Amino acid sequence: MSSTACNSLHVETCVSASEVQPREIILAVRDYDLSATLQSGQSFRWQKRGEEWEGVLGARWVRLTATPDGIKAATAEDVADWAWLARYLQTEVDLNEVLARFPNDEPMRRAVTCCRGLRLLRQDPWECLASFILSSTKRIAQIQQIVTCVCQRFGQAVAVPPGTAQAYSFPGPEVVAGLSEAELRDCKMGFRAPYLRAAGAAVAAGRLDLARLCDQGTHQARFALSQLRGVGPKIADCVLLFAYGRQDAFPVDTWVMRALRDLYFGKQRVTKARLESFVRAYFGPYAGYAQQYLFHYVRTRSAASRVAPSEFRP
DNA sequence: AGCCAGGCTAAAT
DNA sequence: ATTTAGCATGGC
Predict the structure, then answer these.
(1) Rounded-to-integer distance, Cα A313 and Cα A132, Å
(2) Residue nearest to nucleotide C2 (CA to C1')
(3) Residue A90: which of A2, A29, A23 has the closest Cα?
(4) Nearest nucleotide to A189 by CA–C1' distance?
(5) pTM confidence score
(6) 3-class state of residue A172 by DSSP
(7) Is the CB of A273 less than 7 A from some atom of nucleic acid strand C?
(8) Which nucleotides in chain C have some atom under 7 angstroms from a protein Cβ?
(9) Which 287-306 residues of chain A approach strand C with CB closer than 7 Å?
(10) Each residue's pLDDT expressed in tens, for chain A with a length of 314 residues
């Protein structure tokens, strides 16, 4: 599944620090809004430094920069095969094909105009599952803080270029399973601590086989994820969409709920069943993608309208 | 000060 | 079968 070229050539590791150079590549891609994508509440691992984004994928530190030719990537160590990064960023996806299949209505046209270049990532299932267990009734900024704390305390330090801030991997399920609830609560995750710990235990013990969800139907995979305490329909759909690329997963959080109600139901209350049948029938073969555009659209609009009034306070 | 945040669980209608 | 309180924490 993960085609990471692990140990192609282990050259002698007696390299002096001055010889260590970031390895770079440019992934050619058009219509890719890197900032919107990394900030749109899919992953919580990216730090903005100037015009660049620093993060950790698996055990690799990565720095990403948007360039006219595509996305420039730098790593701390030699990379023989960049497939892992192209897969994460989904640079092979033809965005125009996706956007052309959205419903041709006014709200979606506005969302596309607003967010063109927004992409869906393809994340590691465990990290995605764990992150979204931590996400319930939290703002994105707070989820980032919690995830950062979990990685710093319980992840492993990864190699970074000289002069770069230390970075840490996301702790595996067996590590999380071995932590106490108190250790986890110290990262400010509150009532989510026992949920995260139990999820780590379930995955580590093989009671939940994340790799096998690839071979299962979306409905069956959603059921398997929902067996975990703290994982309901919304979080399960986030994992199915962001880690497994299931376009028939359509996470409905408070933002998307408001958007659907306001834009398609005349701002009136809707039952869950009615909403689900509408979503299934209406948003087409890239429903998951459409959901992300709606989410980012209403969220950025709301942020813009909330900034102005504070300037007028006495 | 009160409300809300990429919700879910368990209890009460 | 649906609706509602409680849950930790922090920002506005």
Answers:
(1) 36
(2) A271
(3) A29
(4) C8
(5) 0.92
(6) coil
(7) yes
(8) 2-3, 7-12
(9) 306
(10) 333 333 333 333 344 454 555 699 999 999 999 999 999 999 999 999 999 999 999 999 999 999 999 999 999 999 999 999 999 999 999 999 999 999 999 999 999 999 999 999 999 999 999 999 999 999 999 999 999 999 999 999 999 999 999 999 999 999 999 999 999 999 999 999 999 999 999 999 999 999 999 999 999 999 999 999 999 999 999 999 999 999 999 999 999 999 999 999 999 999 999 999 999 999 999 999 999 999 999 999 887 766 443 333 33
